[in-house]
Amino acid sequence: MASLKDIKTRIGSTKKTKQITKAMEMVSAAKLNRAQGKAEAFQPYTDKIREVVSSIAAGSDDVSHPMLTDREKVKKTGYIVITSDRGLCGAYNSGLLRETMRTINKRHKSTDEYGLIVMGRVGRDFFKKRNMPIFQEIIGLPDQPDYTDIKSIASTTVQMFEDELFDEVYIHFNHFVSAISQQVTESKLLPLTDIAEGEGEESQTPARVMDYIYEPDAGTILEQLLPHYAESLIFGALLDGKASEFGARMSAMRSATDNADNMIGELTLKYNRARQAAITQEINEIVGGASAQN
Amino acid sequence: MKTMQTNVVTPDGSVYSGETEMVSVKAYEGELGILPGHLPLVTPLTVGAIRIKKDSKVELIAVSGGFMEVRSDEVNILAESAERPSNIDITRARAAKERAERRLEEAKRDNIDFKRAEMALKRAVNRLEVSENKM
Lengths: 294, 135
Description:
Low-confidence stretches of chain A: 198-207
Mean pLDDT of chain B: 84
Helix content of chain A: 55-70%
Distance between the termini of chain A: 34 Å
Number of strands of chain B: 10
Strand order of the largest sheet of chain A: 3-2-1-4-5
Helix content of chain B: 25-40%
Oligomer: heterodimer
Strand order of the largest sheet of chain B: 2-1-9-8-5
Number of helices of chain A: 6
Number of domains of chain A: 2
Order of helices and strands of chain B: EEEEEEEEEEHH
Number of strands of chain A: 6
Shape of chain B: elongated
Strand content of chain A: 5-15%
Order of helices and strands of chain A: HEHEHEHEEHEH
CATH topology of the largest domain in chain A: Pyruvate Kinase, Chain: A, domain 1
Structural class of chain A: alpha/beta
Shape of chain A: elongated
Mean pLDDT of chain A: 86
CATH architecture of the largest domain in chain A: 3-Layer(aba) Sandwich
């Protein structure tokens, strides 16, 4: 049985760990709040572009753009994987990476058939260790990223699609459902077939489709707009992923704090028992010694 | 005087929102002034300044690309970045300008770096001009 001193040390260290996890929980809660605000501020931007693009696509039938149509043969697929830089956030990264690996193994036979664009240190290290083809990587993104932080990686990715290096691009990220629940999500980034076909939320409100004058013409505008739209979708997924990261870290830290509480309770009980046993033994010894003298 | 709702939105949030009397922007084909009641219009913008007229006062906003959507009583400007004069970091813009000028001298004419430096220079100059209210 552990000595009194050992138990006391363990209680002390568990208490300190609890303080840290509790502080991290509160920090994550604050960051989550900010990340949600940021995601909200960003929403009107994509919504508006989407609205204009779909009204161009709906307004004229002869408008076509390489970014709007499926390619006949998909030779290479790009995957954007959004992970976090740091751990201590529960199953946030492991769940996502497991799902990504499963998808890749199912769809592709060799490493020539796909390429990865990785955000976050955890994902980068994961794929690097497995010698998978990483085309681009970015680590050390701030907690509240600005558009300029990912502008270059986003536009290079879109460029890769335009240059036909990739024939399809998917994004893998954790979608923020609520502070305690995140969902591993795959969404197809390119080609942007869903707006071309008028699917999605916009089709339910056809009244909003306007008859615009295009200056200089619809084709030029699409050419300008579509890369912007694709880039903004990447940014949107990143913001969503960041919010999920803080949510995941918050709940991971909360359960760590709860566990520490339980452990402290158990250890205190053990400590009191051991102390009681020691006292009992001491009394026994005294009584035994006294009776031996008589 | 008739007014229209004007919004300037970037991925990092809204920069301007309010009722205005006139908006003038720099489109690809040249300057474009929008008054209330304009026909619906969509046009891409170049790097330049937006001038927003409200209560006979003119406010400038520096934008880097993006596009404008006009409806009868609403103007939406979506840009990758948009800054009011008070939010422009002048020292950073100056540094960017010098860096871009240096790169332009080094790079060859047809190089991609050249184009990139040229765009960077345009953005920096635009920011400086807006912040100094020269336009």
